[in-house]
## 1
Amino acid sequence: MADSERSAQEREAARLERERRRAQQRGEAVVDESAVSPDGRGAEPPELEHGAPELDLGGAEPPELDGHRPVIPAPDLDDEPTDQPTGEGLEAPLGTRRATHLDRLRTQGRRGERAPVRPRRGRTSPVRRRARTLAPSRSSWVGRALSVVAILVGVLVIWFLVELFQPFHGSGQGRITVTIAPHSGVSQIGDQLERDGVISSSFFFNLRTILAGDRGSLLAGTYTLHRDMSYGDVLAVLTTPLPAAKVTSVTTVPGETRAQIDALLRSQGVKGSYRSDTRHSPLLDPVAYGAPRSTPTLEGFLFPDTFQLRSPISIPALVADQLKEFKRVFATVKESYARSQNLTPYDVLIVASIIEKEAATARDRPLVAAVIYNRLRHHIPLGMDSTTRYEFNDYNKSLTQSQLASPSPYNTRLHVGLPPTPISNPGLAAIEAAAHPAHVNYVYFVAKACGNGDQRFTASYDQFLTWSAQYQAARASNGGRLPAHC
């Protein structure tokens, strides 16, 4: 009987020891059930001197210690039997209960152990809190940057629309006359209006024209506009057909001088001064044609033709038409031969102006040009009375001896070379003859008496003297009048 009880106690002690070790590994505490009295209260542990005695459990009865139940040491876990006998003879373990959380804390406190700290639910770690703190700051910076960009874009759009539609623009001030040439493109018109100060930007004018659908509706003509007009006002003017205006034809004859044209216009009652308006013009610079910078007037560049001008006639409009036509016509003339003779375009124009005054027929033009070229080549004075007549603006009376002896640079009897400026405004035929003279050796020519303007040309000085005597005799018999027509 004693052997069976010990065997059961040993097994129970081994079980308790296993429970205790497992609890230690899990961080739990297990109450020693053998220390609980039958009435449920824990028995006082025996007071032992010098620690607990070692017991020999080799089959002997455990000694009684002061009337208490013996404490049986747990056997080694490795010696636990694999089968446990069951039956009524085995006693169930008494006072066994699962340790509570408070008991575990107390046990760990007694053992000097520290319970693991678990983070509370719903709280974030400092790293996460810092990340959440930094994230809003970055997003806030991006948001502010996007706001600034949006504001700048908005301001730019508003500025663009104001410049394009000009809601606060006035109707302009002053007056300016603008002539839109036929077949002008929108870009050309915009550039012209910007140069004249009518609009502020050719780019916005072109864009406004496209938006208004008026690219093909701009009309050529002469308009009276204002400076600093709005694009809408300009489009309204340029897309409205001009009323039919009264037009007057003005014809200038090839070979006429500025003084002669001025006298003609005055006789017709045209207001203004042609001579004053033909000194200089922004439309043409004589220097570009080889003229000296000191060239005093536009003589020679005022192309002769018939011009249609709005009434009343405007002299600046006439001069502008003459200069534009000259530039167009002169650009078609080939000057290679003249350049080979060291003549500039301005020199060709001077030669042409002399031809207009000296040659009366189309046949004589290249021959007169040949005489001028040959005399220049041989350094012989031209001896043309027409240059002296230009100096004195005298084309009807015979030249006096004092006029023929004048030291003026236009006196080609005394000075070698060409006069300093053209002496008339030549037409295209005279300009072509000046650029392409006849290839002959003539150095003299004399008007043929009763030849209706024809000239006689020769390279012999003696022949020239004979013909000159005949001409003077015919003139004397004609009462001193020129014997051109008999």
Note: Strands lie at 173-180, 221-227, 247-251, 306-310, 444-447, 455-458.
## 2
Amino acid sequence: MSLLAIIFILIVIVLHVYFLWIEMFAWTTVGKRTFKTLSPELFEKTKGLAANQGLYNGFLAAGLLWSLFIQDKQWSDNIALFFLICVLVAGLYGWYSVSRKIFYIQGLPALAAIAFLLLK
């Protein structure tokens, strides 16, 4: 795995841990300031949904972190590629269903990591 691939994977990990924190622990405070498109009264009502979504972001971060510790290069690359594709698909769906901004924040770093992972 190239250094640039590792750097972008780490960026994606940090972003998804941050998403986890917002959605699981700071939905009604930081989440409200971050997602201004939602009505303020919805944040308390959607805490459970946001926490569930945050958990999934944590799984993505954990899978990518795991890929960095796998000794077998092919296995490590395949695991990283799987989780990066999941992040990319989530970013594309966010672009389609919510806002282009989601793709730029979530999808582009994953796409860059995929590109650097596949360039050998």
Note: The two ends are 8 Å apart (CA to CA).
